[in-house]
Amino acid sequence: MNENWIAPSILSANFAKLGEDVDNVLKAGADIVHFDVMDNHFVPNLTIGPLVCEALRKHGVTAPIDVHLMVEPVDRIIPDFAKAGASIITFHPEASVHIDRTLQLIKDCGCKAGLVFNPGTPLHHLDYVMDKLDMILLMSVNPGFGGQSFIPSALDKLRQVRKRIDDSGFDIRLEIDGGVKTDNIRAIKEAGADTFVAGSAIFSQPDYKKVIDDMRAELAKAG
Ligand SMILES: O=C(CO)[C@H](O)[C@H](O)COP(=O)(O)O
């Protein structure tokens, strides 16, 4: 796999032709599929559940599916997503009463596990669970909708988390989600991210390969 993962958010895909759209974005060079689950409770929007994840697997999608749960409470739905073919499951600390237990539940279900931080969520939730994390996802918009603008303070937060990961010695991906575009991806990489969720920037364009190639060209310039 590439060192930098491009993770198209299917929130902005064509839901009427989802399998085909996911095939196309993977053919265009995407590394993983970012799958946004919203419950109209933890966030003000309602999207897709395990049935859709399972349908993508049955359709033939073999790439990792990165399930971002914006759902509260979170534990009950985790085994369903694992059975449906999720590869990575991330959740928000605010949505779990016992963060360590939820991380362990994801791992016991055979998936990689991660924590998600909203723009206003402090990083202290990382204390004592770094050893259980495969991914840390920083939101650079408030969750709920695609097409929002990148919140600049996320860059400083990325630098802080990159340092924590490097100091820990654990192998943890650092993912960013919200307002990621070709023209800011280089600065985001330089701040420490290695996994880049992009929804509207990719799916709003007719040529997915051109957007992904342009993003990779910008990533290659990062110092
Ligand atoms: O989790 C999300 C929103 O809650 C989306 O993944 C995110 O906003 C991506 O969309 P865009 O790249 O258009 O900002």
From TrEMBL:
<dbReference type="InterPro" id="IPR013785">
    <property type="entry name" value="Aldolase_TIM"/>
</dbReference>
<keyword id="KW-0119">Carbohydrate metabolism</keyword>
<dbReference type="GO" id="GO:0004750">
    <property type="term" value="F:D-ribulose-phosphate 3-epimerase activity"/>
</dbReference>
<feature type="binding site">
    <location>
        <begin position="144"/>
        <end position="147"/>
    </location>
    <ligand>
        <name>substrate</name>
    </ligand>
</feature>
<comment type="similarity">
    <text>Belongs to the ribulose-phosphate 3-epimerase family.</text>
</comment>
<dbReference type="GO" id="GO:0005737">
    <property type="term" value="C:cytoplasm"/>
</dbReference>
<feature type="binding site">
    <location>
        <position position="68"/>
    </location>
    <ligand>
        <name>substrate</name>
    </ligand>
</feature>
<dbReference type="GO" id="GO:0046872">
    <property type="term" value="F:metal ion binding"/>
</dbReference>
<dbReference type="InterPro" id="IPR000056">
    <property type="entry name" value="Ribul_P_3_epim-like"/>
</dbReference>
<dbReference type="InterPro" id="IPR011060">
    <property type="entry name" value="RibuloseP-bd_barrel"/>
</dbReference>
<comment type="function">
    <text>Catalyzes the reversible epimerization of D-ribulose 5-phosphate to D-xylulose 5-phosphate.</text>
</comment>
<keyword id="KW-0862">Zinc</keyword>
<feature type="active site" description="Proton donor">
    <location>
        <position position="177"/>
    </location>
</feature>
<feature type="binding site">
    <location>
        <position position="36"/>
    </location>
    <ligand>
        <name>a divalent metal cation</name>
    </ligand>
</feature>
<keyword id="KW-0479">Metal-binding</keyword>
<keyword id="KW-0413">Isomerase</keyword>
<keyword id="KW-0464">Manganese</keyword>
<feature type="binding site">
    <location>
        <begin position="199"/>
        <end position="200"/>
    </location>
    <ligand>
        <name>substrate</name>
    </ligand>
</feature>
<feature type="binding site">
    <location>
        <position position="179"/>
    </location>
    <ligand>
        <name>substrate</name>
    </ligand>
</feature>
<dbReference type="GO" id="GO:0006098">
    <property type="term" value="P:pentose-phosphate shunt"/>
</dbReference>
<feature type="active site" description="Proton acceptor">
    <location>
        <position position="36"/>
    </location>
</feature>
<feature type="binding site">
    <location>
        <position position="68"/>
    </location>
    <ligand>
        <name>a divalent metal cation</name>
    </ligand>
</feature>
<protein>
    <recommendedName>
        <fullName>Ribulose-phosphate 3-epimerase</fullName>
        <ecNumber>5.1.3.1</ecNumber>
    </recommendedName>
</protein>
<dbReference type="Pfam" id="PF00834">
    <property type="entry name" value="Ribul_P_3_epim"/>
</dbReference>
<comment type="pathway">
    <text>Carbohydrate degradation.</text>
</comment>
<keyword id="KW-0170">Cobalt</keyword>
<feature type="binding site">
    <location>
        <position position="9"/>
    </location>
    <ligand>
        <name>substrate</name>
    </ligand>
</feature>
<feature type="binding site">
    <location>
        <position position="177"/>
    </location>
    <ligand>
        <name>a divalent metal cation</name>
    </ligand>
</feature>
<feature type="binding site">
    <location>
        <begin position="177"/>
        <end position="179"/>
    </location>
    <ligand>
        <name>substrate</name>
    </ligand>
</feature>
<dbReference type="GO" id="GO:0019323">
    <property type="term" value="P:pentose catabolic process"/>
</dbReference>
<feature type="binding site">
    <location>
        <position position="34"/>
    </location>
    <ligand>
        <name>a divalent metal cation</name>
    </ligand>
</feature>
<dbReference type="InterPro" id="IPR026019">
    <property type="entry name" value="Ribul_P_3_epim"/>
</dbReference>
